[in-house]
From TrEMBL:
InterPro entries in UniProt: DUF4160 (IPR025427)
Pfam families found in the cross-reference section: DUF4160
Protein name as catalogued: DUF4160 domain-containing protein
């Protein structure tokens, strides 16, 4: 499962065989926590990631939704960068393409 992003201790991955793992989603790992997040809604539909980190992951998905869908369909994975503002979890977070 390729790693497509890392930020604030969160690792974002996506399975290689997307057709076997519908609906389109990403896997997030934060320490001993993990979760599956819908690319469409950004919501966690399975897992136990704490709410503060869920908000960051949802913001990441919101900023990269089109690219995540493209990776899901083409299986052409790229590394995505996500940077936060001055405070952890800041809504001023931004995404930076490689």
């Amino acid at each position: 499962m390729p790693v497509i992003a890392r930020f604030f201790g969160i690792t974002i991955k996506m399975y290689l065989r997307q057709k076997e793992h519908n609906p389109p989603h990403i896997h997030a790992i934060y320490g001993d926590y993990s979760g599956l997040f819908s690319i469409e809604s950004g919501e966690m539909y399975e897992g136990d990631i704490p709410s503060k980190e869920q908000k960051l992951i949802k913001l990441f998905i919101s900023n990269y939704r089109e690219k995540l869908y493209d990776m899901w369909e083409t299986q052409n994975f790229t590394s995505l960068k996500f940077e936060g503002g001055a405070s952890y979890g800041s809504q001023s977070a931004k995404c930076i393409d490689d």
